[in-house]
Amino acid sequence: MPVFALIDEPIFPKPTLAEPGGLLAVGGDLSLERLLAAYRRGIFPWYDAESPILWWSPNPRPILIPGQVHVSRRLERTLRSGKFRVTLDTDFGGVIRGCAEMMRAADNGTWIVPEMIEAYERLHCAGYAHSVEAWQDDELVGGAYGVAIGKAFFGESMFHRATDASKVAFVTLARFLERQHFHFIDCQQTTGHLCRFGAQEVTRNEFLKRLEVAREEAGMVGKWELAGQEAGAN
Fold it and tell me: Given this structure, which CATH class describes domain 62-230?
């Protein structure tokens, strides 16, 4: 399969034309219009500082159903203990920078380059990108962020500075998405961590069918908030 070079207009080739590894296109920009067009077609950017912008549509695609997330008894106790206070859309910049810092520490590099941070902060300001934060004594110790299109949530990254902080944040987010009738959480890449939460792989065609239905439902554009009892103890 060829890899497509994008033109100035925010349009993409069919996701099914991606090469076997999932790479679909190269180039373009990270404008709000292009990112929204990409996510609506199940495409996302992933690249590093040494490469041009690369756009992906993997096959198979791991997803999580919000109401089917596996939670161990130990983690459930932590969730109920109030060890962490959890919020939504309170410190998006802190979360995405925390994810970038954690990746740099682990891999000596990160795909969350400065222009990606700026682009997703624009998505957040427009009401499409969202963060979940875990706090201890008013210190941000974990979280995750992603993009919501209709009733589909595209998970991007998570980080922690305290044991179980990202897990508590993620499970709280998943339960929030379940209550809001989201169809699935896109995990983009299969990892052991996500499999333990219950991620399942579906074919690209199956993913695109699910996305076509989910994106047509009324979304939740704007700031998200948890009800008081959902956020844990202060």
Answer: alpha beta
